[in-house]
Design goal:
The structure holds three protein chains of three kinds.
Chain A lengths: L1 H23 L4 H13 L2 H26 L7 H18 L4 H29 L3 H21 L32 H18 L1 H11 L1 H6 L4 H28 L10 H11 L4 H25 L5 H16 L2 H4 L5 H5 L5
Helix pairs in contact in A: 1-2, 1-13, 2-3, 2-12, 3-7, 3-10, 3-11, 3-12, 4-5, 4-6, 4-10, 4-11, 5-6, 5-10, 7-8, 7-10, 7-12, 8-10, 11-12, 11-13, 12-13
Chain B lengths: L1 H26 L7 H19 L2 H25 L4 H23 L14 E4 L2 E4 H20 L1 H11 L1 H6 L4 H27 L11 H11 L4 H24 L5 H18 L17
Antiparallel strand pairs in B: 1-2
Helix pairs in contact in B: 1-5, 1-6, 1-8, 1-9, 1-10, 2-3, 2-4, 2-8, 2-9, 3-4, 3-8, 5-6, 5-8, 6-8, 9-10, 9-11, 10-11
Chain C lengths: L1 E10 L2 E11 L4 E5 L6 H8 L7 E6 L2 E2 L3 H6 L2 E4 L11 H6 L13 H13 L15 H14 L4 E5 L7 H16 L3 E6 L2 H7 L2 E6 L2 E7 L5 H9 L17 E10 L9 E8 L3 E5 L6 H9 L4 E8 L2 E3 L1 H6 L3 E4 L3 H5 L6 H5 L8 H15 L14 H13 L5 E5 L7 H16 L3 E6 L2 H7 L2 E6 L2 E2 L9 H8 L4
Helix pairs in contact in C: 4-5, 8-17, 13-14, 14-15
Classes of the chains: A mainly alpha, B mainly alpha, C alpha/beta.
Chain lengths: 344, 291, 483
């Protein structure tokens, strides 16, 4: 209950911060916020767009939830999301079009994302290199890999733009009516429920949470801490990778350089607002999805930059930190030890 | 060849300033993942103040002010409230990316932030003419940082705060004060770096113009093993590789541009794999105090 | 010169210092002795201004000591058991760090010059100031701390267990040095549990037990036996040796087991030990004599550098030992190692379970709560339980699967009488059911009342097994390293 209150408070204060910057720039805050809300929720089309935008956020947020709950600083959902999409595209285009190809593409994306996270896990466990930094580096490697592929080996046949050819229509996720609303949202919600079940209904999830909360006690109780750290990192990467596949198969249909556009970093804000709770992440992702859609609408109608949504994410997390509520649910006993990667 | 060298020095200047600033801060035990955001704020501040005042000096002051605003927020969370430094840094990045993006487009009506933007002053060194900030970054800043860390009482206390804050506190000194001071040094250097980016390397601000330099700086601090000389060497290596890419690209030899861009990140990761011994950071790095 | 009046100090539920009053004149050599947890370090940290008392006051030359600033101004210095040195920094840097003589900006030799002045002022010899502290032996590091303390010309010097890490030769030197200091009118308080050095150094001995001063007098008028008895709080104890002498099969055997000094400050130095089914063995000792290394080795957390561990006659390597479900472990630091505070009681109980369902875990938790008398609910955060209930929770988790070997470290530390008795009953019951039980403790009463045999651990080595009715004074002397 207290968590819900602090989340709602943080979200409201985040909106107030957006209102403040709008006011600072000479836009009437309440009026503009109302237009933003209308742009995000005011019509079926807007609502579909909001849900659409929240899907990748939900995937990356779930990736962050799994990692942070286990005390692993995966800041690399962005890169895992991208390599997932790359793998999905390759598989989707290689296989005969159809729902088998869809499933295979998502599976390949999960493997690729897990492998990408696995590099950071290996560096942490083998070399004591802090994953908070290696995952960031891997993000850039993934982005440049994508840039190279989109302009090179995977470029469209026409060779006009640095983008891939689209995935065959039969392999794409189903869409509803004339909107861009696609079946990926059910996959995302199912993923949230599965992550919730894993964390709170299985022995492995229990051990994962124990490792995140107190690795020392977990070890004395017979939990193999290193194995669980690695497992959390792999799973986290797989979830982010699945997000990349769903975004590709449901929304973009093609790969291009700016495919991820910060979904990985935004996922951290989503997960934190959800207090690292998988089901709460659904609501949190919807909130930030609405924020992004509303900001996009404002950019079209008023010319106010859509970067407003990013500002809102940052402001919300800062409010969360300031509220001090962080201390009560924060699963990490010693941030420093984790930042150093110093599990011994 | 001299062109390649010039490009290396020019492109490396903002990066090196950021690396040295972060190195000083990390020596005091604080990890600032929000460096990227701080650099953005600095680049934006430099553009805004430069265009308003019309002077390079004003631009640099604006850069420092921008960095200071970001640092005040980070410090309030990570030092004063002892909140988690990693989350604080991530939040700072998002906030700065969003805020500078919104503010720049809104304030740049009629391109008034692009036209009349001052250039940073230049210096003549023999036949070569270079930006003053290049000289500052490659010569003055490293020497000053080394002197600060190894030749001043304040630097000694900063290092103690990063190694064993309890020892510092037991002697009656304030750990928070040492860390705030280190943050102030990062602010000044990041401010110069921002100015070097928006008034030197580029002409004016662009959304997300720091383009990952803040993150690269974090990696180079590890690569440098928290030594100033290592930082200079790391940045030189990195910028030379970057300059080489541009040269090759300009030559049109067809080697994939993006693969080259990604190379420095792979190289840094590879270094973490092959470097002897495990990574040894300042002992209290990332540990809030009081914890 | 120094007056300590009615100091009281508690940490949460535990009372560390009950009531302590002392007067120390200038130039006196005082030893404060007591068993682990007697409150001697806490009392002296209050004197040095590092901790604040709940009640009472400390006066130095009539002035009240309120914090570390006051203490420093009034000439009180304390050298801690854990040295306050920054390890990657050089000796010179560590010395200069707090010195007022260091200029804001110094030259290439600046730090070294200041450090040399500090060394000169201390009257001690110290060379190679450019070495990083990490490269020093513990003895050398202790010397750096002493130099730092003495350079400030203290009027009262407090040393907390300075000799636990020193070689005998270094101890002799230290005692001689402290003698010299007292002749120069500096009062020296030595916190120790080693009676040999206490008698070599002190003219006055203060004994603390359970947070109170229980004996205080000139050392010339006391014997070691009297001090040991005062420390332990009782005289000879007679335990009815009614235990059967049937041959019990050996469950666990340690042969010449040693651990690396890199992983523990005091490693094991070749330990032989047999644990038999149905028997309770106790290992007693003052904390920091290799207990951690022993517990870690038995948990499979420390790789033996020599020797091996056998279970039922088969050698078992550390990783397999870690995974083995035939052993149960009760770690010494309940709050940090025993429970995950953030998880619920049911979740903590299920940490070792292979399968988990919330309903099943709750049902098992309710059963465990009933069986072990835990005052709490299945869905309560484990961190919100009291200390005694946390320990019951750990016992419930570890004993549930009827382990063959139980290793319990300080199982009743900080517990009230009823909770401690409950823990003992459970361990006895487990032994009666056929488990081999090892209790590692610093509480002699616990060892005597619980165990079939007692060994003393000292500096990483084990004594031969002793009868549980071995006089406490003798055990105390062995623990104090005088045998």
């Amino acid at each position: 209950m207290r968590r819900l209150v602090s989340a709602l408070l943080a979200a409201s204060l985040g909106l107030i911060a957006i209102g403040a910057i709008l006011g600072l720039l000479g836009h009437p805050p309440l009026h503009t916020l109302a237009r933003m809300a209308a742009g995000a929720l005011g019509s079926p089309w807007a609502l579909a767009e909001t849900l659409l935008k929240s899907v990748p956020l939900l995937f990356t947020a779930l990736a962050v939830v799994v990692a942070f709950r286990a005390g692993v600083w995966n800041i690399g959902a962005e890169g895992q999301f991208v390599v997932g999409a790359i793998a999905a595209l390759v598989v989707a285009r290689a296989l005969p079009a159809g729902s088998f190809a869809t499933a295979a593409a998502v599976a390949a994306a999960m493997l690729a994302g897990a492998a990408w996270g696995g590099i950071a896990a290996l560096l942490r466990l083998g070399r004591n290199a802090p994953e908070v930094l290696t995952t960031i580096l891997l993000n850039f490697v993934a982005l440049h890999l994508l840039g190279w592929l989109a302009g090179g080996p995977l470029q469209e046949q026409a060779r006009r733009y640095p983008q891939s050819d689209p995935v065959p229509a039969a392999t794409l996720l189903d869409t509803a009516g004339s909107t861009r609303f696609h079946a990926g949202i059910w996959i995302a919600v199912a993923a949230a429920i599965l992550v919730h079940a894993l964390l709170f209904r299985t022995a492995a999830g229990l051990r994962l949470r124990a490792v995140g909360a107190n690795p020392l006690a977990a070890r004395w109780a017979g939990v193999e801490v290193r194995r669980h750290l690695a497992g959390a990192m792999l799973l986290s990467g797989a979830i982010a990778g699945a997000g990349g596949a769903v975004e590709l198969l449901g929304v973009t249909h093609r790969l291009y350089e700016r495919f991820a556009s910060g979904a990985g970093y935004s996922g951290i804000a989503v997960a934190l607002l959800a207090q690292l709770h998988p089901i709460g992440s659904i609501a949190s992702a919807a909130f930030f999805g609405a924020l992004a859609t509303g900001a996009g609408a404002l950019q079209r109608s008023e010319g106010i930059p859509a970067a407003l949504a990013t500002f809102g994410q940052g402001a919300t997390v800062i409010v969360l930190l300031t509220l001090g509520s962080v201390r009560s649910w924060w699963p990490f006993p010693r941030p420093g030890r984790l930042a150093r990667g110093g599990e011994r | 060849m001299s062109q390649l060298l010039e490009l290396t020095l020019l492109a490396g200047a903002p990066l090196l300033l950021a690396v040295i600033g972060e190195l000083i801060l990390q020596r005091s035990g604080v990890l600032n993942i929000g460096l990227e955001g701080m650099l953005l704020a600095a680049a934006f501040g430099a553009t805004l103040a430069g265009a308003t005042s019309g002077s390079a000096l004003g631009g640099i002051a604006g850069g420092v002010a921008g960095a200071a605003a970001a640092a005040a927020l980070f410090g309030a969370l990570a030092l004063w409230r002892a909140a988690d430094p990693i989350v604080s840094g991530v939040a700072l990045n998002l906030l700065c990316l969003g805020a500078t993006g919104v503010l720049y487009r809104e304030l740049n009506e009629g391109n008034r932030l692009v036209e009349g933007l001052p250039r940073l002053p230049r210096l003549s060194v023999g036949a070569m003419e270079i930006d003053a900030v290049v000289f500052f970054a490659w010569v003055v800043a490293p020497l000053m940082a080394a002197a600060l860390l190894w030749r001043t009482r304040a630097g000694l206390r900063m290092r103690a705060a990063g190694e064993n804050p309890d020892a510092l506190a037991w002697g009656g000194r304030s750990v928070a004060r040492a860390r705030w001071l280190a943050l102030a040094f990062e602010v000044v250097l990041a401010g110069f770096a921002g100015a070097a980016l928006s008034l030197g390397l580029a002409q004016g601000f662009a959304e997300n113009m720091v383009a990952g330099r803040g993150f690269i700086a974090l990696a180079i601090v590890i690569f440098a093993r928290w030594s100033v000389a290592g930082a200079v060497a790391g940045v030189a290596l990195f910028s030379f590789a970057t300059a080489l890419q541009y040269a090759i690209q300009a030559g049109g030899s067809g080697i994939a541009f993006h693969l080259l861009l990604g190379f420095p990140y792979v190289a840094t990761l590879a270094f973490l794999v092959v470097a002897p011994g495990s990574v040894q950071a300042p002992r209290a790095l990332g540990r809030p105090y009081p914890s | 010169m120094l007056e300590i009046r009615g100091i009281r100090k508690s940490f949460g539920e535990t009372l560390a210092v009950r009531e302590a009053s002392l007067t120390i004149p200038a130039g006196q050599a005082v030893a404060v002795v007591g068993a682990n947890g007697a409150g001697k370090t806490t009392l002296m940290e209050i004197v040095a201004g590092a901790k604040r008392a709940d009640a009472g006051e400390v006066l130095m030359e009539g002035e009240r000591v309120g914090g570390s600033g006051d203490a420093a101004r009034l000439g009180i210095r304390m050298v801690h058991q854990h040295f306050d040195l920054a390890e990657s920094m050089t000796v010179a840097e560590n010395l200069a760090l707090h010195d007022g003589g260091l200029a804001p900006l110094f030259g290439r030799r600046g730090i070294e010059r200041v450090a040399r002045e500090i060394v000169a002022r201390s009257g001690l010899a110290l060379e190679n100031l450019e070495r990083p502290v990490a490269a020093l032996s513990v003895g050398e590091a202790a010397r750096v701390e002493l130099v730092r303390a003495l350079s400030q010309r203290p009027r009262l010097l407090i040393l907390d267990e300075p000799t636990s890490v020193l070689t005998p030769r270094e101890v002799e030197d230290l005692v001689a040095l402290l003698r010299r200091l007292t002749r120069q009118n500096t009062a020296v308080v030595l916190i120790s549990h080693k009676l040999a050095e206490v008698f070599a150094f002190a003219e006055r001995i203060v004994v603390m037990r359970e947070g109170a001063v229980v004996a205080d007098g000139p050392s010339a008028a006391t014997t070691r036996e009297q001090v040991a008895r005062a420390m332990i709080g009782r005289d000879l104890r007679t335990v009815p040796p009614s235990r059967s002498d049937d041959p019990h099969p050996v469950r666990l055997r340690l042969t010449d087991l040693a651990t690396s000094p890199a992983s523990h400050r005091v490693p094991l130095r070749g330990v032989d030990l047999e644990l038999r089914a149905g028997r309770i063995s106790a290992i007693v000792g003052v904390a920091g004599n290799g207990q951690n290394a022993l517990a870690d080795a038995l948990r499979g957390l420390a790789q033996p550098s020599r020797g091996h561990i056998e279970i039922d006659g088969a050698v078992i390597a550390a990783p397999a030992l870690f995974r083995s479900r035939r052993l149960a472990h009760i770690p010494s630091d309940r709050a940090r190692e025993g429970i995950v505070r953030e998880l619920t009681v049911a979740e903590n109980l299920a940490l070792r379970a292979r399968r988990w369902s919330r309903g099943g875990a709750r049902a098992r938790a309710r059963a465990a709560i009933a069986r072990f008398g835990i005052r709490g609910t299945p869905d309560q955060a484990a961190g919100s339980l009291s200390g005694g209930n946390q320990q019951k929770l750990i016992l419930a988790r570890e004993l549930e699967r009827a382990p063959e070997v139980i290793v319990a470290s300080e199982p009743t530390r900080g517990l009230d009488f009823d909770a401690a008795r409950f823990v003992h009953e459970r361990l006895r019951a487990a032994a009666a059911a056929g488990a081999a039980v090892l209790v590692i403790t610093s509480d002699l009463d616990e060892a005597a009342s619980l165990a079939d045999e007692v060994r003393v651990i000292s500096a990483g080595s084990l004594s031969e097994p002793l009868a549980p009715d071995t006089p406490a004074a003798e055990l105390g002397l062995r623990m104090a390293g005088t045998h």
